[in-house]
Amino acid sequence: MSPLLLAIIGAVLIVAGWLMEKSRQRALKKLDAMMIVTSYAADLKDLMVGGPVEVKGTVRCEPPLISPFTRTPCVWYSAALYERIVEWERDKDGNQHRHEREYVRERKEELATFAVEDRTGRVLVDAQDAEIDGDTLLDDITTDQDEHWNRGIGVELWPSEDTLGFRYVEQAIPLGASLYVLGALRADGSIGAPEIPDELHFIVSTRSEQEQEKSLVSQSRWMKVGWLLIPAGGIALVASLVWYLLG
Hints:
This protein has helices at residues 3-33, 147-153, 209-246; strands at 52-60, 65-66, 73-90, 96-111, 114-118, 121-125, 131-133, 135-142, 163-174, 178-185, 191-192, 203-205. By secondary structure, the chain is of the alpha+beta class. It folds into two domains: 1-34 and 208-247; 39-200, no CATH class.
């Protein structure tokens, strides 16, 4: 292996470790933000405007959105249509190799203002700019070109001889789902994005607080291991290269 390639690999590993540590710090900051006490809708009037607020309850919206693929009443959805195709690549010896790849043919997302209802009342949520984590309602691969799918996403499908099929993916926050919201309290009593995004997190999720915390703790542990091992490998490569050049 050439010295230049060793140097590049070492540098890449060091940068990858640094990026992993940045991600770990973001996960820990998010976990810390979720430690605040959950508020009831009726108590929000007593809290400081602009400060962080956490609510849990049931999603309400009139009228709701309708997701394009599963036709589910919801307050947010993200739908994507992928085309799965075969591509042939020739190596330096002239041999052909078969690869299967996916390309986005169309993507559609829509968000409505909604309310979260608990036993004391309702609070409006404007989830614009939030980290939205919804349910996966559909992840299906098919070769069927049923007109239902075409109408849903608004794209006509014209497969080529290299087309293997189409993949339909849909995520949503269904009407009536249990929801966790962490955001900033507005003057009108609603919850929205913080004025300074770096200071507060804005999370809207169908996963429970406990599920999210468990996931964040697991992520931070694995990223810490990667942060320790990956840069160490990069430093070792760079050190061995310097030793080789000086020797």
